Amino acid sequence: MYRRYNLAHLISAGVVGLMLTSLIVGIGAQARIAFESDRDWDVLRFDIYVMDNDGGNQRNLTNNPGDDRAPSWSPDGKRIAFSSDRNDRGGDRQIYVMDANGDNQRNLSNNAFDEFEPSWSPDGKRIIFTSKRDGNREIYVMNADGGNPKNLSNNPFPDLNPSWSPDGERIIFISIGNGDFDIFVMDTDGGNRRNLTNSDRSDEDPVWSPDGKRIAFTSLRDGGNRDIFVMDADGGNQRNLTNHPDRDWNPSWSPDGKRIAFVSNRTADLNRDLFVMDADGGNPKNLTNHPDDDEAPAWLNAVLSVAPVGKTLTIWGRLKQADR
Length: 324
What we know:
Elements (H helix, E strand, L loop, with lengths): L6 H23 L2 E6 L9 E6 L6 E2 L7 E6 L5 E6 L9 E6 L6 E2 L7 E6 L5 E6 L6 E6 L6 E2 L7 E6 L5 E7 L4 E7 L6 E2 L7 E6 L5 E9 L2 E8 L6 E2 L7 E6 L5 E6 L8 E6 L6 E2 L7 E6 L14 H9 L2
Antiparallel strand pairs: 1-2, 1-24, 2-3, 4-5, 5-6, 6-7, 8-9, 9-10, 10-11, 12-13, 13-14, 14-15, 16-17, 17-18, 18-19, 20-21, 21-22, 22-23
């Protein structure tokens, strides 16, 4: 059917196109990887660092004598949550948050229990984390300001390594399955808990792909050595991506889902560096290449870098409607 396009529609299309182009360019330009490194202290003291997605411009954000670990970007890229033992509570870690440039570091959990492994909800309003406040490691959720903490897993076995799905409807984590750690999934209220891997060797570090269709994780199932695996979101099609004689772990997806960053000790001095590979396991490359240990990569997945599954950008939908 023939459509009539008036001057106003064409101008609107041009303006929206420029806005989308600027947005996409901006998102690409701010593609960054946060990580932890002990290069400024010793083997037991890590700081949170950030670098460009090609490994350039590495810089220390926390620069604190405490042990700072496990960075997690807020969806808008403006803040980073992390865990730290800087509170003088006998080594117990707490959940902290800071601005993306390292400013305004503050304690969110502020209690006498060990709490770590923060992960933001896709809308930026909540943070899931691991806590021992009930005497056992459990998955908790709290508001992004630290308020209203709630136990989600409430299980006699330890639950840890939580990661929020891109659609905000599920949480993956690890728990005891067949005698070792397996990867589980549950709804965000803690319901509908189910085992995805059912392996006889430990599976760890699960993380969703940006489109929510795949999960990358670490597994010891091939001879007891750590490798990076990937599977479909329902647990199907589990396969080894790295298959390397040295240890590979801690995967993190790039915003476009085409690459995976990970930790490996496949270096001449066997120290831990951050590597990146294609999503099929090909073309591995060392990003940090530093004589000290670098771990826990967290790729900034900006909210609009990948549209949620089954959805399109609202502004584009409005433009299409105007052209009818």
